[in-house]
Amino acid sequence: MATLNATIASDIKSALADFFSTHQFSNVFVLVDENTTEHCLPIIQDVLPEFWSVQVKSGEEEKHIETCSMIWRSMTDARLDRKALMVNLGGGVIGDMGGFCAGTYKRGISFINIPTTLLAQVDASVGGKLGIDFDGFKNHIGLFKDPNHVFIAPQFLSTLPPRELRSGFAEVIKHAYIRDISYLHKIKSKSLKDQPWMERIQHSIDVKSQVVLQDPTEQGLRKILNFGHTVGHAIETTYLKTDKKLLHGEAIAVGMICELFLSHKLLELEKDRVDEEGRYLVDVFGCKSLNKSDFEQIVNNALQDKKNEGGVVKMSLLRSIGDCTYDIPVSAADMLDSLFYFNTIAEH
Ligand SMILES: NC(=O)c1ccc[n+]([C@@H]2O[C@H](COP(=O)([O-])OP(=O)(O)OC[C@H]3O[C@@H](n4cnc5c(N)ncnc54)[C@H](O)[C@@H]3O)[C@@H](O)[C@H]2O)c1
Ligand SMILES: [Zn+2]
Q: Do 248 and 308 reside in the same domain of the chain?
């Protein structure tokens, strides 16, 4: 199966062996973290040509310029020239940061992504956004550049911690909410542990790549991929350095419930449907109600979102399930209302 330059492989070794038998590189450089060194590299190392590797510490906290300096230094020590290939083997952090390092080293060398988390497989590895965090701002420095190829293999998911798997599932659900109501029925007909991942990943990538192909640099349509993310990011940021820290998808699940409510309040999505989807998301993600004393901070964080223009929060909202539109202005009062709504659903 192939979409854009992505292959969803049931046999990752043979997919990579094919790739390396038809492409020549002066050198191969593999970026990993300690978890992908342990669980993922052993699966593919036999089929890689002779390679250099560099291991960084896992986690979003490492996605910054100092880690990039270390990576560029290792690339320089390995004497990589412009015909070299970088292989990013890991989750979204490795893909975003490794792609950024490859895209800027000697004005850019080839790179392939082998995403190993569900979130990276259904979202981060497709669409060409590369970057790192800077001075507390997420993905503040970066560029748009597509990898030469993306190899997606569900077999990597077997070692992923269950909470990480569930986090990626939020984006799978999001892709159905914004583009495909009939697919949502399929997703909801199975529990998280019984999802057929090959098929789910293919669907997500089809949706994301259709959208990205029409609007690669997010001038318009691509904004629909942000459904659930304005409120979701604000919640993620609010709890980032607390003991209530949420994984990205967990925060997006809460954000989607709030933005479903706003889709009813400001557009024409039916209230019964909002309640039904809200209860489904609370169920899957085990969402707990939020402290009312945090609401003001959440709304303030949403007002700071880099995707907003001129002090107005513009969101991507649903006209109906499967039909998302963008640039809908939302007031702080409406956002606050949506947080109260979330609590009524979470406490149900
Ligand atoms: N570029 C984009 O379009 C885009 C889109 C969405 C998210 N992102 C970025 O993606 C990042 C989040 O990605 P993520 O959720 O994959 O997090 P991550 O890369 O931090 O991975 C999560 C954890 O899983 C571990 N891990 C990875 N693969 C494993 C495996 N197969 N078995 C066991 N453990 C494994 C990692 O070491 C890490 O500890 C964020 O930085 C976000 O900004 C980018
Ligand atoms: Zn997301």
A: yes
| Residues 143-178 as b or e (16 or more Cβ within 10 Å = b) | eeebbbbbbbbbebbeebeeebbbbbbbbbbbbbbb
pLDDT at 309: 64
For the chain, the domain total comes to: 2
Atom 9 (ligand 1): residue with closest C-alpha? 92
* pTM of the shown model: 0.95
Mean pLDDT, contiguous 10-residue spans, the chain (348 residues): 75 97 98 98 98 97 97 98 98 98 98 98 94 88 96 98 98 98 97 97 96 94 97 94 94 98 98 98 97 96 73 90 97 96 94
Domain residues for 124? 2-159
Which of 164, 205, 225, 248 gets mutated to test ligand 1 (max ligand atoms within 8 A of its CB)? 164
What three-state secondary structure class fits 140? strand
Please give the number of the atom of ligand 1 that sits closest to the Cα of 118.
Answer: 16
Does one domain contain both 63 and 197?
A: no
Which of residues 126, 159, 192 is at a domain's end? 159
Q: Pick from 116, 135, 159: which residue ends a domain?
A: 159
User: 181 is written with which tokens?
Assistant: 């109501």
CB 86 within 8 A of CB 29: yes
CATH for 209: 1.20.1090.10
